[in-house]
Fold this protein.
Amino acid sequence: MADRTSSGTQVRPRRSVLRHDPAAGRTGRTPAYPWLLRQRPAQLLARIRSVTDPDGFAALKDQYSATGHSGSNDCNNALNRVTWIVTSKGGTVRDITIDDCVELQHAIGEHQTSGYHGKHLFYALLAAVGVFGPDAPARLKTVMLPGQLTPAALVDRHGIACTAIRDLLVDYLTERAVDIDYTTLEDMARALAGLFRRDLEKHHPGIDSLRLDADTVTAWRERVRMVRDRHGIPLRPRVNVHTVFTWVRAFYQDLARWAADEPARWGLWVAPCPIRDSDTDHGKVRLRRKAAMDQRTRTLLPALPALVRAVERQLKDAERCLAAGRETPAGATFITPAGETLLRRAGVSTRVYADDPTTGRRRDLTMQEERAFWAWAIVEVLRHTGMRIEEALELTHHSFVAYQLPTTGEIVPMLQVAPSKLDQERLLLVSPELGEVLTAVIHRVRRGQAAMPLVSAYDTLERLSSAPMPFLFQRRYGPENRAIPSNYIYTCLGDALVASGLTGPGDMPLRYTPHDFRRIFVTDALRTGLPPHIAARICGHRTVDTTLGYAAIYPEDVINHHRAFIARRRSLRPGEEYREPTAQEWQDFLAHFELRKVALGTCARDFGTPCVHEHACIRCPTPSRCPGWRRSAPTWSTASRRPRNRAGSARSRRSRQASPPPSRSSPRCATCPPGTPPCTSGCPTSEPAQAVSPPTRPAATEV
């Protein structure tokens, strides 16, 4: 016998799928989702909408048309999903809740093989007409994605057996959560609860104290240095083992410090720290990472112009291929810019599909053009600004700022970068090249509309969704706009690099990451003369040392910049301070340099110290007595090198005394100017002092 829903519609469900839903406003026996999702006749669903709540479904259809959507397939798909909820739960459209939408999505993913991912238009329509209230999330994905876990949930994921230690870790993470972000809190919980405490309980059952003996600490330290699989088999050395040691050491030290203020709460757990200070030192790891980054930058920087040309060419080819596919009727063939012959597929979709007769593979020309555009856009934005990838993806239509120069009154376009890693916002100058790229992005996102669409972005690290904002990096996904995530950027860059065919050393394919463009930007900026402190402000670094760590400076760059600095300095000084050295003076200087390098190792002139003897100081037998040589120059005789003071860094009063004055019986060097102490012995090539005047300082001394 046929059953009827609360609206009177006759259906024929199986007895096993009928259920009673006592929710408010929903009475009677209704069909469950397993049966409904197998019965998909369009006429039946349309009949249910006409007799159940025609006004509610008409409002959803009007909202679909008002928001600029087109295509009957997307509208019917959204209305069908709402119909399934009303049929299964009973009531009207206004009775639908957010939990009903989530339950439907899970049921579709369980009982259907397609149509589950990304089809959330029905939720957007329900939220737009006010079914869920004003405070409802704009997207269903915001509700379904995992949010931030509490410290207790983070600790319980690792299954600590000792209840007292588990409660201690929960209290500790709760105290620390106020000062750190969620990503750091999650890493800290994984290190303390998983890699430290859970590992100790696994290898030492029954342990219930923080006081560990030396053998236990040594064994744990050796285990944590290796990354292991679920069976405990070592796979590879742990790269960030110093971070694990740092969290454990901070845990013990925080307990000892907090016990002074709250002994009743923390004093019971104070114990000697099992981690030495040397275990947290990662100087060698940092140097190896710096060397690897510099080598990677030196490899990728010369190939950047080729990558820029490649992404531009790919974008133009994809646009021409898509235009040719749209102009070709269904079932006809056309030639791509690459010389390929494709067959246009038939269909009513707004996307353009084509078949490759040689391979038999279907190609989505719309998707290819879209990925080529965003690969070109992200390469141009990152290489012109040096921004982090999360900062670029958070650019909105409100980020453009007009700044008026106080001196000339000129209006300069600026780009406001939202606070990211260091919670510091900054302004970047918009160059003409960057302005063209951003204009193309805005024109593409608007799609002829008067304003930018408002979308919500999900932060995968912090597990939070932003408020609806006009993000620049957003794309059309089916019937709705979505903010572009970072994994989509990696996909676009990977496809562009594969299509470009760029190779590096050993004919290996090049691989660019978004952060590589930041290192390339800093290196190129410093190479072309940008001061490091200005580059630090542009990149958003707190210290110049961080900026210098990003730069891979070449030895020839140091030489060229030093020579350019000397040229600029000479141009700012009076011309009479410099003169071109004669040929004989230059030969004497070169001979002095070579002899001094062979005999004594290093000339003090290499340190940039002006010498009053100029080129003739090679004839002085005791250059260390010459007032023109620097005191910090290397010791000229290795036998007279004085050992360092072991007591401390400061030298004693006796060691700071000046050298004894030369003997008065010593003849004066011919090159010593009047008024200087005489040398201890005569120069073999000296001439009478009255016949030689101090030479004019030549320009070669600045080299």
In short: Residues 304-327 form the longest helix (24 residues). The mean pLDDT is 79. The radius of gyration is 37 Å. The longest strand covers residues 411-417.
